[in-house]
Specification:
- This protein is α+β, with helices and mostly antiparallel strands.
- It has helices at 7-17, 64-79, 226-236; strands at 4-5, 28-32, 37-41, 92-93, 96-97, 122-124, 133-140, 149-158, 163-164, 181-182, 204-213, 237-247.
- It has a 6-stranded mixed β-sheet with strand order 4-12-11-7-8-10.
- A hairpin with a 4-residue loop joins strand 2 (28-32) and strand 3.
- The relative contact order is 0.16.
Amino acid sequence: MEPEECTRGRASLLPALGDVPSTRLPRLVRVKAAHSCTILPSAPAFRRIRVPLGTRPRSPGRHPVADMKETEKLSDQVQRRPLPHDFHPRVGELTMSSTDVSDGGTLPDAQVYAKGNSSPQISWSAGPEGTGSYAVTCYDPDAPTGSGFWHWTVFDIPADVTELPAGAGTGGFEGLPAGAVQVRNDYGGRGFGGAAPPEGDGPHRYVFTVYAVDRAKLGPDEHATPALVGFHLRFHSLARGQLTAHYEEQGTTGS
């Protein structure tokens, strides 16, 4: 028997599928039978899915332990969360440096919450033409929260300032330029809050970023959330620079 397109059957399915475009539905056919019209897909509707790494079949001839080590290595790579600007538009680059934190190095005790808990010294190159102010943030994308962890957010730094001294974001905020605004970090306090990853959770990345902003006043006030500030920075950054340090608490009780 010859199948033919069953447009009546397709139409009857649309209300149940809500807003799914008809172009995404598999082609339906009708098989002529004595007393019925059977709706069948004319071809399988394939969809790419991610197979959990631990369920992949073992390669012939390979030892299970070798496959396990490879799986753990790939799993670590897959589970690394994206950095803050991986999906943002490309902008100009600023050169960022610090006398306290080295890019790719271990975060010093001075920037650990239970130890020094002090914001680091940070300096940066001058922004491009049109820069009206700067902003600085510190973010941990590896925090087990589902949304990372904001350790520091300061903005409306005057355009003629290209450095924050150590401790500017903590204590009495000495050294913080006049007019600069700090919002609450994810600990709930205003200013900088140091690293405090769970024990055994592996190394966390602490991403310090400076932004050249296209206006003197970004828009939010001191009551804004870091996420809202980040939203505005997404649309008003002319350039940015960053450095990343790592820190972990050794142990086996990570969560």
